[in-house]
Fold this protein.
Amino acid sequence: MPLTVRMLSGARVTTVPDDATDEAICRAAEEVLDIPQHTFDNDKRVQEKEAKILCKEGPDVFVGLAFADEFVRLLVADMGQFPSTVTLTKDLTVALVKRRMFVLAIVGDELKNDIDVVKAAVGNDGWALRHASNQLKNDKEVVIAAVQNRGSAIRYASNRLKGDRDVVLAAVRKVKNALWFASDELKNDRDVLLTALANDGRALVYASDRLKNDKDVVKAAVENNAQALQYASAELQQDADVIAASSQRT
């Protein structure tokens, strides 16, 4: 039985044999999406790695993965959302968010609350967490995946997870400013701070006053980055050992 390749709205339709190759399916998708044929011919990355089926809704609906970007462009255009005539399957959404994280912003609430969809989105760009449901912003597995991709994505985590040691440690390993979004308790956690300082000594700016006055902590900061000295307590800014450690980094 031939496969039917069409826009999910059903506006344009073509068919390919049921034993069609991935390339043939993508050719059909070109016709359906009205994409110039050279888009496929001239992109070796598409030819070699992306001539795949994007989604299957029932037995007869296929769209080529190679054209996910164009698919999004055509659907969203100037509308800022998917047309109501288009049914987004979970598989289609997963494929799209892996390529364009902004897609998560314009899908329905059910998909924003689907853990597989959101994990695919944050795996592409951690900031996609911004568009996840509140329930998944409070899901430790999802949030860790987001901050491992982009540490500053912790800003979009729930308050509970901003106070979770594992989440914050994963975030500060990626970027120093992640500590800014951590709970006050973890800003006062010596081990968390030392992890952040190993990434960038200037993370000292986000530390609690107590740790800014901890000589070993401040030395670790300035040994990583001499600019961190300005964030130490007034007392330690004048400390000879701290100054010497800082001087070694200038």
